[in-house]
Amino acid sequence: MSYSVDNKTKIATYNSVEYSPKYVKKVGSEPTFVALTEEECKEEKKKADEIPIYELERLREKRNALLAKTDWMSLPDAPKMSDAWKKYRQDLRDITKTYKSMQDKGFAFPEEPKG
Amino acid sequence: MALTKVNTGGIAADAVDNTILKLDDNFDFTGSNTFSGVTRSSVGQSIVPEFIDNVFLASNTASSVELQNCFSTTYSVYRLIGIVGGRFAGQSNVRFTFLTGTNTAETSGQFGTSRIHDDSSASGHIPHVDTSFVTIIGNQASTGASIVDMHIYMQSAATQILGMSGYHDQNSDRGFAAFGFKSNQSTAKTGFKITANVAGNLSVVNFSVYGIRIRQNANSKMLGSYS
C-alpha cells in the first residue's frame, strides 16, 4: 500500500490512484487546499467502490415509481389489463437485467403503451 | 476611533419633531435602516441570525469542503443556508459531518433520516443509525447544486439537525429532501465537512453560517435531552 502527496498540487496518491485535496477554511482566515491523509484516501476508495450500488439503487427507485403509477391496473375491480400494459410492466421489472445504472449507454425506460 | 462624550446640553434638537435622540429610548423607525456591519443582540434571547462566515468552493476543484471553528458556545442555534453541489462527475447524495476538537471529523453518533421525493413520484428513504454523517441532499445531478436550508440546535448532551434541500436530479426530475437527525455525541462541535456519498470532486459550494442567540438556560444550550 503506497501513499504519497504532491506538495505543489496537494494531490494524494494512494495505491496508484490520485485523490483531490480537500478545501479548508477556518473562520476569519483564507481558505487553503489540504492533501487527503492516507486514512481519508481509504475512505474515498471505499466510496468509489460503492458507486455501482448507489447507481443501481437510483435506477430501482425510478423504476418502482413508474410501476407504482400503474399498480391500480392490477386491482381486482379494475378493467382487465391489456397485453401491452402487461409487457410494459414486465419490461420495467426486467430492466435491471440489462442495465445497472441510468447512466449506462443506451439506457431508457420502456415507453408506456398508447391508450 | 475613540468615543467622544458630548455634553447633553450641547445636543440640539434635530429636525424631526424637534426631538433629541436619547439612546435609551425606544424608537419606531419609519425609514430604511442600512447597516454596514452585523446586527447583534448583546442580551441573548434574540431570534436574529448573526453572520459568522461563508465558504465558497469553485466547482470541480476539491473532493470535500470544511468550515472550521464556526460553532462555539456563543450561539445555541445555527442556520446554514446556501447552495451545495454534489459529485461533479455524476449524480450523488451529499453528506454533512460535524468536526469536533481540533477539527477532526466525527466517526459516529448520528441517528435520523432523510426523505426524498421528486416529480416522477420516485421517493427514497435514507435512514441513519449511528453514522458519522447525515445526508442533506438526495440525488443531486452532476455539475449542479441544491439549495440547502438547515438549522442546528446545540443541546446539553446532544445536537439536533432539521432541514430541507431542493434538488434537480440526473433525469431532470425536481424534488426535495426533508431531513431530521439527532446526535448522541456530547462533544462540542467546532465545524463541519461536506462530501458526496461517492468519490470524486464536488460541484460548487457556497454556504453561509449564521448564529442565533436563542437561550433557554445558563449554558446557552437548547433544553431537552436525547435520553
What does this 3D model show about the protein?
The complex is a heterodimer of chains A (115) and B (227). With 115 residues, chain A is α+β, with helices and mostly antiparallel strands. Chain A contains 3 helices and 5 strands; from the N terminus they run βββββααα. Chain A has helices at 38-49, 51-69, 83-98, and strands spanning 3-5, 12-14, 17-19, 22-26, 32-34. In chain A, strands 1-2-3 form a 3-stranded antiparallel β-sheet, covered by helices on one side. A two-stranded antiparallel sheet of chain A has the order 4-5. Chain A starts with a strand and ends in a 17-residue tail after the last helix. The relative contact order of chain A is 0.11. Chain B is mainly β. In chain B, 0% of the residues lie in helices and 46% in strands. Chain B has no helices and 13 strands. Chain B has strands spanning 50-57, 64-68, 77-85, 92-100, 104-105, 110-118, 123-131, 134-140, 145-154, 159-168, 174-183, 189-196, 205-212. In chain B, strand 9 and strand 10 (159-168) form a beta hairpin. The chains are: A alpha+beta (115), B mainly beta (227). The interface between A and B is medium-sized, with 32 and 36 residues. Strand 4 of chain A pairs parallel with strand 2 of chain B.
Mean pLDDT of chain B: 85
Could you give a short account of the major beta sheet of chain A?
3 strands, antiparallel
Order of helices and strands of chain B: EEEEEEEEEEEEE
| % residues in beta strands of chain A | 5-15%
Radius of gyration of chain B: 22 Å
Helix count, DSSP H or I runs of 4 or more residues of chain A: 3
Q: Largest protein interface? A: A-B, 32 and 36 residues
Counting copies of identical and different chains, the oligomeric state is: heterodimer
Q: Roughly what percent helix of chain B?
A: under 10%
